[in-house]
Amino acid sequence: MIFHKTKDSSKMQKKSSSDLGAKIFFAVLLTILTVCIIYPLLFTITTSFKTYAEFLKDPFKISFTHPENYTTAWIEGEIGTLLGNSLYVVVISVIGHVLSVCLISYAIGILRFKGSEVIMALMLSGMFLTSEVTSIPKLIMIRDMNLLNTLWALIVPYVFSPGGMAVILMSNFMKRLPEEVIEASELDGAGFGHLFFSVVLPMSMPIIAFTAIQQFNGVWNDFMWPLIALARNQQVWTIPLGLIRFQGMNNSEYGELCAGLVIMMLPTITIYACFSKYFLEGAAAGAVKG
Known about the structure:
The chain folds into two domains: 2-47; 77-287, MetI-like fold (Orthogonal Bundle), CATH 1.10.3720.10. The relative contact order is 0.13. The chain starts with a helix and ends with a helix. It has helices at residues 2-47, 52-57, 68-76, 79-111, 116-126, 131-144, 152-159, 164-175, 179-187, 192-203, 205-221, 224-229, 239-242, 254-287. By secondary structure, the chain is mainly α. It has 14 helices and no strands. Helix 4 runs parallel beside helix 7 (152-159) and helix 4 (79-111) packs across helix 8.
């Protein structure tokens, strides 16, 4: 009896030791990841208050001596115009993208017509194509539509290129909506419009919020496609593209550049801070297949 108790206690000690080791490992790993994520942000903020000479002398010194970099960046970099262009593109793109994803997901998750699984597989296969692969076809399409060097050259691809992952998450979410509610609405004579906008969408708000935040982040920070589509018209540049004005042939105005980056980051940080709850709820809800 004593032998069994000793053996059990030995197993418990080994288990507790392994649990403690795992906790320490993950704590160290999370600390390293946190530093890797936060340090570039802090570096950008401190650099935004330095002159070019101060940055070259000591890039890592914490200094807040030149707040006028923000004024210079706003005026010389035309940050106000860039923000206006970006907001115009983001608002239309997010609304259009979310609506297109909702419609596709409704067809796959609620209607479940014959061949919907094939469409899902095709959309999933599109996730394996990088943006570089699709840039040339998009450019040809936009050129033929006479939209090059206009903001609509960005909006059209953003709206009508719903990501496969967004459709998968939202269609999985809609598959798990209470069938009783949908059937009751149909029995009451609800048509497509009423069923879609008044029943399905309100119940799908967590995953819709997740999709909207993801699309906002992608559109707001996109650099490559605006560089291709808007290269010849600086008046319609978005803020990620417009910040290259602070980079010269021989040197770069790092203070003004980082000030512009900080201004650019503020909307993204604000969105995540205000809607992080819905972001996490939507990610968790859509990830579980029904």
